[in-house]
Design a protein that fits this description.
This protein is α/β, with parallel strands linked by helices. It has helices at residues 3-36, 48-58, 104-110, 115-118, 143-153, 170-174, 214-223, 241-246, 258-270, 328-334, 354-367; strands at residues 39-44, 68-70, 74-79, 90-93, 126-128, 131-134, 159-166, 178-185, 191-195, 198-202, 229-232, 250-254, 277-280, 293-298, 303-304, 320-321, 335-348, 371-383, 386-395. S-adenosyl-L-methionine binds at residues 210, 217, 255.
Length: 396
């Protein structure tokens, strides 16, 4: 070997040694990057909506990042810290997180909103299929601009409806018709909304749909056994009927609102459960005594008369009429011994859980049946100081 070759070989060895000395530093950089990377919870795709709602309720969901796919069966949900209450299979770090679109306030600033105007930006809204449903604050300076900004924020949406609550008076109150106004986008608001694999065809401008009941709809599908007979007393468009029928139950569903009933029939076909859903456009009380149901779903808690408990005009939840407890005798008439009632109620916080449990106990006594409370759950906040709750109760 020549001297020059030896020197070159020595230089190569020195270079190799230098590269090797750099490798641990690169590993250190990668470890630091991984340590600083934001967290994500991996969940099965079928649990996406339920998990997001639970993580939000726990206060650890990160709205600044997008949900990412993780293989063919899972998604990565962005979180700020590992959840303590929500069960997830795995928590990982995202090395390449994808930020969301500019937030609503930023889009409104681009439209000329001042800092004072931004005080009236709504804190939440719902996307139902291709329709955004939002409660517009009374002091909103420009609801059309708000609607256009929401459409930009949610590129998949076509329309924005202002949610003005549910009708309480007359036939519209009995039918639980929504009060909405189109503030942006397409005036054709009929859409298909998908939750946990269940497809709901509806028009949010004409029939009620509560996004806050999403977890309860999913739960009904999870606890129903194949072959059970379910009586859904207030079926609507199939809120509970469809996930329970998809789980294998045979569902007798009653609904008095003709528009909702039409969607109920269409949705049974849409979800390929038409052979497991017997739908009747009738008052549930007219059919109850003819049934032998393993479960009865009472997913209705009445309407408000718009007054407070003293009979004065006010903004309180009012004296509720046609409440679910008025239908308990009929529910028990349809329920087999050992069957379960899922009883919904809008209850003031001061009366939780006494009032719903007292009403169930009174119904059991009147029917000469034994009561066992299986579970008590808060579904969502109904209004200030009032919760929408559900009690699962077995009657022997």
């Amino acid at each position: 070997m020549t001297e020059d070759a030896a020197d070159a070989d020595g230089d190569d060895r020195a270079a190799d040694g230098e590269r090797r000395s750099l490798e641990p530093a690169a590993d250190d950089v990668l470890e630091r990057a991984e340590a600083d990377a934001p967290l994500a919870a991996l969940v099965d795709k079928t649990r996406t909506e339920t998990a997001i709602e639970s993580l939000r309720a726990e206060g650890v969901y990160d709205d600044s990042r997008r949900v990412r796919e993780n293989g063919s069966e899972r998604v990565a949900l962005p979180i700020t810290e590992p959840p303590a209450e929500t069960q997830v299979p795995e928590v990982v770090r995202q090395l390449e997180p994808e930020p969301r679109n500019p937030d609503l306030e930023a889009l409104l600033v681009e439209r000329g909103w001042s800092d004072a105007d931004l005080e009236s930006v709504p804190g939440s809204w719902a996307v139902i299929g291709s329709v955004i449903l939002v409660t517009v604050p009374d002091d909103c300076p420009d609801e059309a601009a708000l609607g256009e900004a929401l459409l930009e924020l949610h590129g998949e949406a076509d329309s924005v409806l202002a949610d003005d609550g549910i009708e309480n008076d007359g036939t519209a109150g009995t039918y639980r018709e929504p009060r909405t106004r189109l503030i942006a986008g397409d005036d054709d608001t009929e859409t298909i909304h998908t939750e946990h694999g269940t497809r709901y065809g509806l028009d949010p401008a004409t029939v009620m749909f509560s996004p806050g009941n999403q977890a309860e709809r999913a739960r009904m599908g999870e606890i129903t056994a194949d072959g059970e007979h379910v009586f859904d007393m207030f079926a609507g468009i199939g809120y509970f009927t469809l996930p329970m029928a998809r789980a294998g139950a045979r569902v007798t569903a009653t609904e008095i609102n003709p528009t909702a009933f039409r969607y109920l029939l269409e949705n049974a076909v849409l979800n390929d459960v038409g052979d497991r859903v017997d739908a009747y456009m009738t008052d549930c009380r007219d059919l109850a005594s003819e049934l032998e149901a393993d479960r009865v779903v009472m997913g209705y808690y009445g309407s408000s008369d718009g007054s407070d408990n003293d009979g004065n005009d006010g903004t309180d939840h009012g004296t509720r009429t046609d409440e679910a407890h008025d239908f308990l005798p009929d529910a028990l008439a349809a329920l087999v011994p050992g069957g379960v009632v899922h009883y919904h109620e809008a209850a003031p916080e001061s009366l939780l859980w006494d009032r719903p449990l007292e009403r169930l106990a009174a119904a059991a006594d009147d029917a000469g049946r034994e009561l066992e409370v299986l579970e008590k759950r808060r579904v969502k906040s109904h209004s200030a100081g009032v919760d929408h709750v559900v009690v699962d109760a077995r009657f022997e």
